[in-house]
Amino acid sequence: MSESFTEPPSERALRIKAIESVLLEKKILAPGAVDEIVDLFENQLGPRNGAKIVARAWTDAAYKERLLANGTEAILEMGFAGLQGEYMVVLENTPAIHHVVVCTLCSCYPWPVLGLPPNWYKTAPYRSRVVIEPRAVLSEFGLDVPDDVEVRVYDSNNELRYLVLPQRPVGTEGWSEEALAEIVTRDSMIGTAVCKVPNADEGVV
Ligand code: FE
Questions:
Q1: Exactly one of 106, 128, 139, 176 is catalytic; which is it?
Q2: What pLDDT, in 10s, does the model give residues 156-172?
Q3: Residue 94: inside a domain, yes or no?
């Protein structure tokens, strides 16, 4: 039998809890409101929404055309819209062009399709370096873009957000939209990764 230990909450967690308690006490915050907001961002929003968009575009040529022509409208067609996604542009990765997205000023990010930004997206090194030396930064993400592929960096802003449409991996012919959505990662829709078919050898040491 193993002993179980309970880690004390982190300082940040304690501080958040304290703020929440004060807001509840002063009736500024309704009970359950925080849970609802967390659920919204963790479960209802998030990269799974973007993955559905990508999988649809991979399997439905007419939808892809609409998506590239008017991202906002085509994303709304799938039921996703709202705060921080009011105006969306979709950038298609091709064998010749690889797109990567940044917000050099702050951390603008398409919430309705990708949820909240990862921490690295908000850091000064990513924001400054990806525009200066995108290939080196992508390489640090484990993505080596071949020399014959052009890398284009797009800078998001308060009014305009981007979603990268990654390339559909070879070996996924005949896959269902649901199965395709499973292999679409958050980073592939920012442009710091590409979509891959899970390696059949994975797990074999
Ligand atoms: Fe920003």
A1: 106
A2: 998 899 999 999 999 99
A3: yes
